Amino acid sequence: MIIPVILCGGSGTRLWPLSRKSYPKQFVPIIGGKSLLQLTAERVAPLGPQLMLVAAEAHRFLVAEALQSIDSPTQAILEPKGRNTAAAMALAALQAAHIGQKDALLLFCPADHHIPDAESFRDCIGGAIPAAEGGAIVTFGVGPSFPSTAYGYIEAGDPLPGQSHALRAVRFIEKPDAGTAQDLLLLGSFLWNAGIFLCRADTLIAALHRHAPDILAACQAALPESAPAEQLPQSQKDLYWVRPASTAFEACRSQSFDYAVMEHHDSVAVVPFKGSWSDVGSWNAVADLAPADERGNRIEGMGYAIDASNTFVHAPCRPVVALGTRDLLIVDTPDALLVTDRDHAEAVKTAVSLLEGEGCTQAVTHRKVARPWGWYDSIDMGERFQVKRIGVKPGASLSLQKHHHRAEHWIVVKGTAEVQCGEERFLLTENESTYIPIGATHRLHNPGKLELEMIEVQSGAYLGEDDIVRLEDTYGRTETSKT
Questions:
Q1: Which of 357, 378, 402 is the last residue of a domain?
Q2: Of residues 140, 160, 175, the one with CA closest to residue 44
Q3: What average pLDDT does the segment 466-481 reach?
Q4: Mutual angle of helices 118-133 and 36-44, in 10-degree steps
Q5: How much is the pTM?
Q6: Which residues of 245-373 form beta strands (DSSP E)?
Q7: How many CB atoms lie within 10 A of CB 266?
């Protein structure tokens, strides 16, 4: 049996400003209105009767939303803090053993890769099963099409005895310089490391015990066999959270599985994947997914290229004109704009670090923020006021709360709102409004079958997101934040 394990980590800095730490690229609808996580889940779900994910605790509701269209029982292990792929894979293997599946094959897939030919991918996985069942850790390689310095490389050797697809992995080379990458390409025996692994759960645990015993021990301490799984509240899906103990897991060191195990293990195989693959790891990679015109321009949304060549424009919200440009990447969002030469696409994360160091909130969060009940968009603000658009999913509610420093005016523009303000409960329909005084206990609920959309005008001496006293919450949140 195969259990697909989707690794949902990543900070999202390389595709800023579309992807940000609070909303990394695996959750962003990038391709055909779907996120990379959705596409990954659709690709691997046919391989096994259940899915497993490893994701950040902070992204739990983004995970739940992405999986709404996937008809497969799912467990999501929620990391209290990111500790790289070795720890994430250890947690998944231990959880598989806890549920009686220590001999199951675990297929580890990054959530943020794009593989358009799902059938070819599943055929490739099928070819790797015999080697994995025989005790090898199988990784997958992609034939390099150019001398990339952004990918790791695997040297493929002779076929394993009795295997028709799996080759011996001779050595790993991490992200070489340009000259070395050119030499590896010319040798013909090197593949790009796709970061996908297939092995038995007990094989992985044994390999970690041998090569990274401290990582395994920390994960074992954080994920005792008695740890209960928690069903997602108010969900019709069979989705369960598994929460490792925070203190024990945060004590684990951070290291990739390649460094911790693969470079040292003596039973490693590689299976070549001949289909199309991208890690969508830079804006150059995103641009290459879009069709090009006769001058090499690639346009998404409301972009225009006039007397331009080899220019990519991502403009989902407003007209963006590239006039007489060459070799540029232009990415527009409601609150931040990126313009970079194609040769500097890999340095976007450096710009994000600079912005974050300056305290720029756009480095980390979007103006529009996803919440378990829907979303809110901060459309205007000034001294002593702030205006937000708020969308509430059908049947969803914000927490019961109050504010010490601000009052709120609510105006319904679409749908129906059920409002609790103090002891009163009443309905508001389109074009109706209400006032929430400072200190009043209040709650907003959408009783309808369509999304509720409203405008909220906040006014007061302090409008920070930490001015919330949450009294009741449907989603199990206890931290102070916008509901």
A1: 357
A2: 140
A3: 72
A4: 60
A5: 0.88
A6: 268-273, 298-306, 312-323, 328-332, 337-341, 368-371
A7: 7
